[in-house]
Design brief:
B: mainly alpha; 3 helices; 65% helix; disordered C terminus
C-alpha cells in the first residue's frame, strides 16, 4: 500500500502545478482544499490549521516547513471513551492529588522543533492543561492538568486531533511503570571526583620535595583531612566493587572485582596506618583517583540507549481499548475488561486483542508478526481468530471466546521458557578470566615477597607485602573492557545497530551459529514479487486485469495491482465474492480473478496448496495465474558469504514453498526448518546450545520472542526503531541489515583489542611489581604510576577502536 | 602560615557547595534530556500576554 501511495505521489509530481499541503507537506493528490489562501491535502489537515490559527498558534508553521502530521488517517474520537474509566486513568497517571494529575505519554510522531513548540503550548488549546514538557529524544511528553477543568480523555483527544496521538498500550496500564533512570552511578562518580580533586590538592606538597617544611607543619592535618575525604569514597563510591567481589565469592568464583577490592582495601588501610602513626602521607590520592577512574569505566559500561526499549512483551503490542458492540451501539472498552461473549468490532489494521469467533465481515488476518506466515489468512464466519492477528481490509465483527489473559498468545508468553530471567551471567567474560589469573599471580608474588623479607627485615616485609597487594590492583585491566566495548557500542549505534548493553559485544564475538527467521527478517515484509504464469498477456489485457484488481481492498489484489503503471481503465459491474474472488467488465470483456475453486481450476498439483496463487480468466477463458514470491533483503547474499565459517540455520513459521530458493541462498549445509511454532523455535535454539554452540538469533516478530530470549544473542530487526520490537539484546535497523556480518566480524576484532589493552596495562603492573617486591614502592610512585596507567589504557582503548572501525568501514 | 587552615576550610566548603549543586542538578533531572532544552531556548517569546502556564514552563529552559 505504501508503494501505491509512492507511485501516486510521483505521478502527481509529474503534473505541472503540484500543490503541497501547507500543514503536512504531502502532495495534494485527490483534491486540493484551499482555505485561508493556503492549500491543504485533506480536511483533517485543514481542521488542525484552523484550530491553531484560532488560538494564535501559527508560530508552529514558522519554525519548520510543513511540520504537521497528515490528518488523513483520522479516526473517530469515540475510541478514547475508555479513558473516562477511572480504573484506566488511575493506571496511566503517575501522580494525582486534589487538583492536578501528572502523566507521561509516548508520542512517536514528534519529529521536529515545531512539534516541541506546539506540544509545549498545549495549555493555549485546553486551559485545563497547566504544563506540558517534551523530552524529544525519548519522544515523551509529560503533562500536568487540572482534573476538575479537563479530563484525561479530552487531553488525549486533543493530542490525537493535532496528529500526535499518544501510544497507549496494554503495558502502560499494567502498572509496570517505566523505571526512572538510575542516577546512582553519577552520584558515585560526582562524590569520587570531588574527593579525588581535594585529596590531590592536599597531597600536592608531597609531590614536591621542597615543601618539606610545609609537610612537617601540616602533614598530620592534611593526612586526617584526606582520610575524612576518602571515607565516603570507600563506603559509597567503591561499594559496587566490594558487593560484586562478594557476590562472586559466594558463588565460589573469583571475578575481576575481587583483586580490585583487595587492592583498594590494602591501599586504604595502609594509608590509615601511615596517617595514624604519622609515618607517612598515605596513598589517599591514589585510592580516590583509582575509584574515580574505575567508576568512569563503569559509567561507560552502563550506558545504553534508553530511548529504545529492549524488554517489551506482548502487552506493549496490544491496544488498551477496543470497540465493543452492545445493542447495536459502539462503545469503547478497556481490553482488560473484555469478557467472554462480548461482540467487538475490528477495523482495518486493528489488532484482534483476544481469541474470538468471526461473526460478520470478510476477515483477512495478518499473522505475520505472531506466527511468521507471510500471507494474510482468510477466515470465514464461524472460524476462530487468534489474538495478535491484524485485520486487513474491511471492518469485521467478532465474538470474544477467551479472556485476554487466557488467549493463545498470552498463554504462550506465560510459558516458563519465555519468562526466563536474564541468564547472561558475566561469569565467563575475558576480564573475569584475566582477574582469576591476576589473583593467582598476586598471591604467589605476595607470599614470595613475605618469604624473602621476613627473615631479613620484618618492617620491610610488611611494606613490600602491602605494596604488592596495592600495585596488583588490576584497575587498568578493569577499564579495558568497558572502554573497548563502550566505544564499539557507539560505533554500532552510528551504524543503526543498537545494543542493549556493552556485554552484548562479547556475546556477539563468541557466536558460531547464526539462526534467521524468514518472514520479515530474510524477506522484505512490505514487498512481494508477483510473477505471472500462463498464456501471454497483451498489454491491453494486462492493463484491464490490473484495473479490475485495483478496485479490491484484498491485500493480494493490491499487491498485483501495484504493478499497474498506466492510469486504470474504467471498470463496470465490479463484484467481489468474499473468500473467492472478484469479477468486473472492462470494454465489454468479462474478467474474473480469484482462487482456483472460484474459477473452477482443478488444484491437483500439490504445490498449489503451498504457494499463494491467484487465477485469471478472460471472457470465461482461463489465462493463467499469478504467484507470489518473497523478496529477500538486499545484501543477504553477501552477508551469508561473509558468515563463512559459521553455521547458518533458518527457522520459519511459514510453509516450505520457498525451500528451493532458500536452499540456493543459504547453501547446502544450512539447516532449514519450516512450520515452526514459537515454542518449537525456542526448542531448536536450545538444541543448538546443547551442542555447545553459541547461537545468534535474528528475528523480528512475536513468534521469535522466545528464541530471541533463549539465544546467546538475540537481534530484533525492525523497520523503525521506535516501533514495537520483541525483547532482545540488540535492535538492528532494517536498512543496516547488509552490515550484519561486518558487525559480527568487528565484535570479534574487539576481543583482540581488549587483549592488546590488557597487555598495555600489564606492563605498568609489571613495573610496579618489580618496585613493590623490593620495598621501593612509595606514595609518590603510586601517585604517578596509577593515573598514567589508567589514562593510557583509556586512550589506547579509544583510539584502537576508532582506528579499527575506520578500517572495517563502519 | 596558619592561614592555610582557614583557606583549606574555605576551599573545601566551596568545593562541597559545588558538589551539592551538581547532585541537586542530577536529582532534579537536568541531565536526563540534553536535547530538548537546546531547542526550547530558541523559541521566541509571544507578544501576547503570557499565561501562568507559560511561566511554569520557563524555569526548565532557563
Amino acid at each position: 500500500m505504501y508503494q501505491t501511495k509512492k507511485t501516486i505521489e510521483m505521478e502527481a509530481a509529474l503534473q505541472t502545478n503540484v500543490q503541497t499541503c501547507y500543514h503536512c507537506g504531502d502532495t495534494c493528490v485527490d483534491e486540493v482544499i484551499v482555505a485561508h489562501d493556503k492549500a491543504f491535502c485533506c480536511a483533517g489537515c485543514k481542521t488542525v490549521y484552523e484550530l491553531l490559527e484560532e488560538n494564535n498558534l501559527c508560530t508552529y508553521y514558522n519554525l519548520e516547513q510543513n511540520p504537521g502530521i497528515s490528518g488523513k488517517a483520522q479516526a473517530s474520537d469515540a475510541r478514547f471513551a475508555y479513558l473516562d474509566d477511572a480504573g484506566v486513568e488511575a493506571q496511566l497517571v503517575n501522580f494525582k492529588n486534589d487538583d492536578i494529575c501528572k502523566l507521561t505519554f509516548y508520542v512517536p510522531q514528534m519529529h521536529c522543533s515545531s512539534c516541541i513548540w506546539l506540544l509545549e503550548n498545549l495549555f493555549k488549546l485546553n486551559s485545563g492543561i497547566s504544563e506540558s514538557t517534551v523530552n524529544f529524544l525519548r519522544k515523551e511528553i509529560s503533562l500536568t492538568y487540572f482534573h476538575q477543568k479537563t479530563t484525561l480523555r479530552e487531553v488525549v483527544t486533543l493530542l490525537a486531533r493535532l496528529g500526535y496521538e499518544p501510544e497507549i498500550t496494554l503495558a502502560d496500564t499494567d502498572g509496570k511503570k517505566v523505571k526512572k533512570q538510575s542516577h546512582t552511578i553519577i552520584y558515585k562518580l560526582g562524590i569520587a571526583g570531588f574527593c579525588f580533586g581535594n585529596v590531590m590538592l592536599l597531597a600536592f606538597p608531597d609531590y614536591l620535595a621542597v615543601a618539606d617544611d610545609l609537610q612537617r607543619t601540616f602533614g598530620s592535618f592534611f593526612g586526617y583531612l584526606s582520610l575524612i575525604l576518602s571515607i565516603p569514597v570507600l563506603f559509597y563510591s567503591a561499594r559496587g566493587f566490594y558487593t560484586s567481589a562478594w557476590e562472586g565469592l559466594k558463588q565460589r568464583f573469583v571475578n575481576i572485582d575481587f583483586p580490585i577490592a583487595l587492592g583498594l582495601t590494602a591501599l586504604f588501610f595502609v594509608s590509615l596506618y601511615e596517617v595514624i602513626t604519622g609515618t607517612g602521607p598515605g596513598y589517599y590520592d591514589s585510592f580516590t583517583g583509582l575509584v574515580f577512574f574505575m567508576l568512569i569505566g563503569k559509567y561507560f559500561q552502563q550506558r545504553t540507549y534508553d530511548t529504545l526499549s529492549f524488554d517489551r512483551d506482548y502487552t506493549s503490542y496490544f491496544p488498551v481499548s477496543v470497540t465493543v458492540l452492545k445493542d447495536e451501539e459502539e462503545t469503547s472498552t478497556a481490553v482488560r475488561n473484555l469478557k467472554i461473549g462480548d461482540r467487538i468490532r475490528i477495523r482495518n489494521q486493528e489488532l484482534v486483542p483476544a481469541d474470538a469467533i468471526l461473526l460478520r465481515g470478510q476477515a483477512m488476518i495478518d499473522y505475520s508478526f505472531v506466527t511468521g506466515e507471510s500471507e494474510p489468512e482468510e477466515k470465514v464466519a464461524g472460524e476462530i481468530i487468534y489474538a495478535g492477528g491484524r485485520q486487513v481490509g474491511e471492518s469485521i465483527e467478532v465474538e470474544v471466546v477467551k479472556e485476554v489473559s487466557q488467549g493463545y498468545l498470552t498463554q504462550l508468553w506465560n510459558d516458563s521458557a519465555f519468562s526466563k530471567e536474564e541468564k547472561h551471567s558475566s561469569v565467563a567474560t575475558y576480564a573475569n578470566k584475566a582477574g582469576q589469573w591476576f589473583v593467582i599471580v598476586t598471591v604467589i608474588v605476595a607470599i614470595g615477597t613475605l618469604w624473602y623479607w621476613v627473615p631479613r627485615d620484618t618492617d620491610m616485609a610488611m611494606r613490600a607485602f602491602t605494596s604488592v597487594l596495592i600495585i596488583a590492583c588490576p584497575c587498568a585491566l578493569s577499564l579495558a573492557t568497558p572502554f573497548v566495548h563502550g566505544h564499539t557500542m557507539r560505533v554500532f549505534g552510528r551504524n543503526k545497530f543498537y545494543l542493549k548493553n556493552t556485554s552484548v559485544v562479547e556475546s556477539l564475538a563468541k557466536i558460531d551459529t547464526v539462526v534467521f527467521d524468514k518472514t520479515g527478517t530474510l524477506t522484505e515484509p512490505s514487498a512481494a514479487e508477483v510473477t505471472y504464469t500462463g498464456k501471454a498477456l497483451a498489454a491491453e489485457q494486462e492493463r484491464s486485469i490490473l484495473s479490475v484488481l485495483r478496485h479490491s481492498t484484498h491485500p493480494l489484489s493490491q499487491r498485483i495491482s501495484e504493478n499497474l503503471k498506466e492510469t486504470p481503465l474504467n471498470v463496470e459491474n465490479f463484484q467481489e465474492f468474499a473468500g473467492k474472488g472478484l469479477s468486473g467488465e472492462v470494454n465489454g470483456h468479462l474478467i474474473r480473478v480469484g482462487s482456483a475453486a472460484y474459477l473452477g481450476v482443478p488444484s491437483d498439483k500439490a504445490t498449489d496448496t503451498l504457494k499463494t496463487t491467484v487465477y485469471v480468466s478472460w471472457d470465461g477463458m482461463l489465462l493463467g495465474y499469478y504467484t507470489f514470491y518473497n523478496v529477500y533483503r538486499d545484501g543477504l547474499k553477501s552477508i551469508l558469504h561473509d558468515l563463512g565459517d559459521k553455521k547458518v540455520a533458518m527457522l520459519s513459521g511459514d510453509n516450505n514453498h520457498e525451500e528451493a530458493r532458500l536452499r540456493e541462498l543459504l547453501g547446502p549445509e544450512a539447516e532449514l526448518v519450516f512450520n515452526q511454532s514459537p515454542v518449537q523455535k525456542l526448542e531448536s535454539i536450545q538444541a543448538f546450545q546443547a551442542m555447545h554452540r553459541k547461537v545468534l538469533m535474528v528475528g523480528d516478530g512475536l513468534n521469535d520472542a522466545g528464541a530471541l530470549k533463549q539465544s546467546d544473542a538475540g537481534i530484533a530487526l525492525t523497520n523503525s526503531v521506535t516501533n514495537f520490537s520483541p525483547s532482545c539484546d540488540a535492535i538492528l535497523d532494517a536498512t543496516a541489515f547488509d552490515k550484519l556480518s561486518k558487525f559480527l566480524a568487528f565484535s570479534k576484532k574487539t576481543m583482540s583489542l581488549i587483549l592488546a589493552t590488557f597487555a598495555v596495562s600489564l606492563v605498568y603492573n609489571a613495573i610496579g611489581l618489580t618496585l613493590a617486591v623490593q620495598g621501593l614502592f612509595s606514595p609518590i610512585f603510586s601517585a604517578i604510576l596509577m593515573p598514567i596507567s589508567s589514562l593510557s589504557v583509556i586512550v589506547f582503548a579509544t583510539l584502537s577502536v576508532k582506528f579499527a572501525a575506520k578500517r572495517a568501514g563502519l | 602560615m596558619y592561614i592555610i587552615f582557614l583557606m583549606i576550610a574555605i576551599s573545601v566548603t566551596v568545593a562541597a557547595a559545588f558538589l551539592g549543586a551538581f547532585l541537586w542538578a542530577v536529582r532534579s533531572g537536568q541531565y536526563d534530556d540534553d536535547y530538548t532544552p537546546s531547542v526550547r531556548m530558541l523559541f521566541d517569546n509571544e507578544t501576547a500576554p503570557t499565561s501562568k502556564g507559560k511561566d511554569a514552563n520557563k524555569p526548565q529552559g532557563a
